[in-house]
Amino acid sequence: MFPPADDPPDLAIPPNRGPLPVRRNPNPNPNPRAPSGHQRDPRPQGIRVARAHRGARRGSFCTMWRFLSGSIAFSVLFIVFLMVMQTKIRVPEQGWSFLDGIKSGKSLKFGQGSLLRRFGQRNGLDHLRSEMRIGVRRPTLALILGNMKKNPPSLMLFTVIKNLQGLGYLFKIYAVHDDNSRSIWEQLGGQISILSPEIYSHNDWTTFEGIIVDSLEAKEAILSLMQEPFCFIPLIWIIQEDTLAKRLPFYEKLGWEHLVSYWRSAFSRADVVVFPDFSLPMLYSVLDTGNFFVIPASPVDVWAAESYSKTHSKYQLREDLGFNKDDMLVLVVGSSFFYDELSWDYAVAMNDIGPLLSKYARSKNAGAMFRFVFLCGNSTDGYNDHLKVYGYNDHLKEVASHLKLLPGSVRQYGMNSDVNGLILMADVVIYASSQVEQGFPPLLTRAMSFGIPVIAPDLPDIRKYVVDGVHVVIFPKNNPDALMRAFSLLISNGKLSKFAKAVALSGRLLAKNMLASECVNSYAKLLENVLSFPSDVLLPGHISQSQHDAWEWNSFRTADMPLIENGSASMRKSSVVDVLEETLSNQLDSGNISNSETENDVLTQLDWDVLREIESIEEMERLEMEELEERMEKNPGIWDEIYRNARKVERVKFETNERDEGELERTGQPLCIYEIYNGAGAWPFLHHGSMYRGLSLTTSARRLRSDDVDAVDRLPVLNDTYYRDIFCDIGGMFSIAFRVDKIHKRPWIGFQSWHAVGSKVSLSSRAEKVLEETIQEETKGDVLYFWAHLNVDDGPTQKNRIPTFWSMCDILNGGNCRTAFEDAFRQMYAMPSYIEALPPMPEDGGYWSALHSWVMPTPSFLEFIMFSRMFADSLDALHMNSRQSMNLSQSMNSSQPTVCLLGSSKLEKKHCYCRVLELLVNVWAYHSARKMVYINPYSGQLEEQHPVEQRRGFMWAKYFNSTLLKSMDEDLAEAADDGDHPRERWLWPLTGEVHWQGIYEREREERYRSKMDKKRKAKEKLVERMKHGYKQKPIGR
Questions:
Q1: CA gap 450, 425 in Å, rounded
Q2: Is the separation of the CB atoms in 783 and 856 below 8 Å?
Q3: What is the pLDDT of residues 879-914, one digit of tens each?
Q4: Checking CA distances to 873, which of 213, 245, 457, 743 falls within 20 to 30 Å?
Q5: Helix (H) or strand (E) segment spanning residue 648
Q6: 403 to each of 62, 76, 396, how far by Cα in Å?
Q7: Whole-angstrom Cα distance, residue 484 to residue 353?
Q8: Could you tell me which residues come within 8 angstroms of residue 208 by beta carbon, excluding any fewer than 6 positions away?
Q9: Which helix (H) or strand (E) holds 428?
């Protein structure tokens, strides 16, 4: 389907493969500067960015040579040649096209201002570090590796992850495929889990603060994170391949828009898509949704240079290319981006090199000579039939003869040649472009890694990393005299000077780890701005604490691996891209086959006439048979058989009130456990059995062909996403309690969050059996059975002490759990300020229920919901008062951003009440004298927690008395019935039934009035008939 990728002769610089459209040109008009006689295509042209691994592209100086002028002394000759070259070079439409809107002196840059502005607003973790915080566990991240090859991208990622661990992050590593570097990665994250389709769907990603995905190969992991409840987890996707970028132009050409949309949807899921250089985001621009980010740092150039040096000889390369051993080779490289239409800019830049050519390329000393080699383009000597362009060397020879240069003193090699070999055999490398480039030029990094002295212009991104006269020699741009002086510093008697050798050595040492520190710091800063850190999480160390400034070379250079792998080949081929293309092409082929078959089977008029004749004959035969059957006597059969057939038909008929299969399975069961979930991503975690029934918090996320309960349908307040988010699982419980007799008619009721399965604390089959037998035997007393216990002991600092219930609640709620609970409890019971309002909880080391995973008698459940509704309403009232006092919201519109004192991260503020309400069942069960029993989810072993006998003197039983709660509930119902709302937005009437004695009496009176009215009408009708008799209306009127 697509042309095969050419394997480059060098190690990490593939050849320039021609134009790749990046952004459409909004100006469709032809370029007025285009040469006359060559008609340009009037359709919009895309930005041409031909990528040759990280910026090793066709340099801008190639175009310079078309307009080469020589020295200032030949300025008139320079102008003449400029005009002649422009008319001689023929550039075809299809091979060369650039943005017409870019003018002379401008450069192409990738802008990531929107993300930088967003990060600037968040200001990292500075505001969190200044606040009081109680953290007990390290921030946990999932790392999904697309491959585990020993190559430069893996080295970069390994270095970053290891340094992030030093800052306090904890990583769980997953991999799509197993490979030879597994043992290296296990040093960081322990045992690595190999992902499969089953693991994708059965892994609870919400346990991580964020996810880092590496490579396009991990695309399936991205798809599994696009469903609720996983679609809100912060995701960083690192893409270092250009495989897909090269295919995108073909997709557009073939009309595969749905495949482009497929990839765009996957890219849009990531909060940030990170690239290692500034060319890749422009190549992938058709998939950009505003989340592209660049961290320009990779050891690929150093890796390639060191590996190439061990297998190639400098002098052998010279001999192979026809250079003498004593020749002074000067390699001229250029900018990463080039524009063939901007010849005047390049001609001015080339003016800097003219004096060097005039001075050094005209003489020959003792058999040695200066040779200038220009690295640019893909073309070779002679005429290229494919590109219809005269070779660059033809123009170089012509210019050299006019400038009276020695034969062979100037040569040109394309990017499809051995780039590493050309750099290795050079004596000096000159960066000849004055274009401002984003990031440090990759070819300079490679030249420094080979130990070649480098001369470069005074550009900001070069000055940022190197020191003039130490690592490279820097000259003011567009200053030929300064370039001449810089070059003379490196030459002494036709050889490299001692100064040049010192610069080369210092540059080589610097290049080895030049970008490592910046790479680590950039990723650390990115995580601070992307991740949300919950209240119980320790904040990572400050970026300044990361002192590691080198790549982890030692970890990747072991005896069991070759010194170098073809890094470019590993990034060129992507099985994910190939599989998707193959799937699509097969679908298109099958569609074409079906279309061809349809075309061959088109019916003619004769076929339609024959068909009508056949149908008419069959219709006549059918009518004759019916007439014969009517005239024949029939035996109706035995009455029992007729009755049996009639009953069978009745059973087959659909009944609107017919019970489904799930309800029939639960018939006779004493217990039903409702599993609460809020998205299609949680479906694999739910059970299928007579004991369980799903409870969906969103209508659109209900399982297909199931009898799951729709919480939104039963409790309309959950239609408001604000309330659904702040209530979480307890909102589903409110919906079950609302007119519970219509949906739950069993003596026991239970709940379990889908997170319990993801956390591997759900009931095993053995524990289920023990629980079922226990509740059938224990018929006396109220008991709360729970199997998921509260546990925040996740660090070495917590091993010597067991945190109390209220301290654990504070940890999970931003340190404000006690305050919020006490204030809500005080307002709920109208307690004066001088009375203690925080119910005491024991410090006996026992377990407390968590994750809403418990079972209790149905009457007890209704009493708990009665208490929870009033507490939630009181908590909401305090929350609204805090919002008004801070003047952050004058209206009560729930769609506006909220202020939550019970959390610090964005996700915690979104689910503000969830963590307090999750622990509320413990306070209610303890102080209402319910027996609390922990059942081991694996073995089924029962163990009573906080025995009732030991609670005497500590329980606040008077506040949790069922009579008091019912009285309070009736008072609230009476106020709601009378329209006497205590505040503008009163939550309590929206969370369940509103019922009191007055409503009962009014309903009874209405029923009595309806009954008497019916009797009166019947009596009046009877009297009317007795008086006037019964008259039938005439037919036809």
A1: 9
A2: yes
A3: 887 766 554 444 444 444 457 888 888 888 899 999
A4: 743
A5: helix 639-652
A6: 18, 12, 10
A7: 8
A8: 140, 141, 142, 172, 233
A9: strand 428-431
